[in-house]
Write a structure and sequence with these properties.
8-stranded mixed beta sheet; WD40/YVTN_repeat-like_dom_sf; mainly beta; 5-stranded mixed beta sheet; membrane; 2 helices; globular
Length: about 425
């Protein structure tokens, strides 16, 4: 089925995408892999598998449908409001467990070598930030010196090799790896871009933090130019100090969330009558294209602030890949909104996928995965990637593998609500 893309330059056809998205709150950016060429795996063996009962035993008190898996170091951490549970990437064995009081939990963010928890303090304000190391040790915690989040607002957290950047209450702060005082702070004034020009009762709404840029959204209760009372202005900011690089025009912001930001552009998402849609903005924050998606189901992590892109979306460099059940992969260039390629071959019953060097791996029917070239979308037809060793001999479909995380030569798979699986490259 083809539809027309809403494009500020001209309409162009694009395949109707599908995404398991109903509510999305994006905290930063997940970039999996790079655009350098490399050999796709010839196959995977199952190193370990935790079914529903095993997950219940490993995560007592947790609902196995809710935890979000994130990888830090050599452990995969299952995060929810009740606990952090760390499993060994190689064996699936329990490494450590850290209880989290539900009434204290506000959210979390991921770094390359640590997990950052946002906790509620004794004043009922979500302004405490704690760094958790891969061994389960709390390295430090600090009270973020900012105004408390407004109702419905959350702290945006993005770990980096040199520390962590947070945005909350109209302030942007960067903390060193060792904690302590922030390296720098940038305050977003209440009327930073002027009541007279854009509207009245304007304030900071939300943010996304990328590898080389920060995006913020400013909303006005009484906009001057926008047609909707829920309007907003996008801002692109420097990752080095939070200063404004570019401001976009006033646009309708009803239900809009920031999904991804880089120096080359911004991707936002918002609900529509068919489910969900992605909007692309270039480095000057001009909207270049809108791609509609259909929402098949709500994510399991609906009760959590989601710290990654929708499960059917992957990003590598300047390309966004949309994949999932009922369609073949599609690649969109973030900086221009252009449809880069649309796969013509392969299984329609795909699932979540991941970038592996120069290939996009997706799974389909039987016990195999397929590899598409990142640059062209060509299917490597002679390379069926077998998955051997699944415990259930009757189980021949892997198309419900909706979250895959690469860790070196290993892959962690969250299989719907049923199990967690560790794969190792043959």
């Amino acid at each position: 089925m083809r539809i027309f893309v809403e494009d500020s330059r001209r309409p162009k056809p694009v395949v109707l995408l599908a995404a398991a998205v109903a509510v999305v709150v994006a905290l930063g950016v997940v970039v999996i892999g790079w655009l350098d060429r490399g050999d796709a795996p010839s196959g995977f063996d199952v190193a370990w598998e935790l079914d529903g009962q095993a997950l219940d035993n490993a995560t007592p008190g947790q609902d196995p449908r809710n935890p979000v898996p994130v990888v830090i170091g050599d452990v995969v951490v299952l995060v929810d409001r009740q606990a952090l549970v760390a499993l060994d990437v190689a064996t699936g064995g329990l490494r450590w467990r850290m209880p989290v009081t539900e009434d204290r939990y506000c959210g979390f963010g991921q770094g390359p070598d640590a997990l950052y928890l946002n906790l509620r303090d004794d004043n009922d304000e979500c302004l405490t930030l704690a760094r958790i190391e891969p061994d389960g040790r709390e390295a430090w915690r600090t009270r973020v010196g900012a105004a408390p989040p407004a109702p419905g607002e959350r702290m945006v957290i993005a770990g980096r090799p040199d520390g962590v950047v947070v945005v909350v209450g109209g302030s942007i702060m960067a903390y060193p790896v060792t904690g302590g005082d922030p390296k720098w702070t940038h305050t977003i004034p209440v009327n930073d871009w002027g009541d007279s020009a854009y509207g009245y009762d304007c304030r900071f709404v939300d943010a996304a933090i990328g590898a080389d840029a920060i995006a913020t959204r400013i909303g006005c209760a009484e906009p001057v130019f926008a047609t909707s009372s829920d309007s907003a202005v996008l801002e692109l900011r420097a990752i080095e100090d939070g200063s404004v690089r570019q401001r976009g025009p006033v646009t309708s912001g009803r239900g809009q969330v920031l999904l991804h930001v880089s120096g080359g552009g911004v991707v936002t998402g918002s609900p529509d009558e068919t489910g969900f849609r992605l909007a692309f903005h270039d480095a000057q924050l001009r909207q270049t294209a809108v791609y509609p998606l259909t929402a098949a189901s709500a994510p399991r992590s609906l009760q959590l602030p989601v710290t990654e892109l929708p499960q059917d979306i992957r990003i590598s460099g300047d390309l966004l890949f949309a994949l999932g059940a009922g369609r073949r992969p599609v690649a969109i260039r973030i900086s221009t909104g252009e449809l880069e390629w649309q796969a013509e071959d392969g299984e329609d019953a795909g699932c979540g996928g991941l970038v592996w060097d120069g290939a996009l791996l997706v799974c389909g029917e039987e016990r195999t995965m397929s590899a598409y070239e990142l640059a062209t979308g060509d299917l490597e037809a002679d390379q069926d990637i077998d998955v051997d060793g699944l415990a259930d001999p009757e189980r021949t479909l892997i198309s419900n593998w909706d979250r895959l995380l690469r860790v070196g030569d290993r892959v962690i798979v969250q299989d719907g609500d049923e199990s967690l699986i560790g794969l190792v490259r043959k």
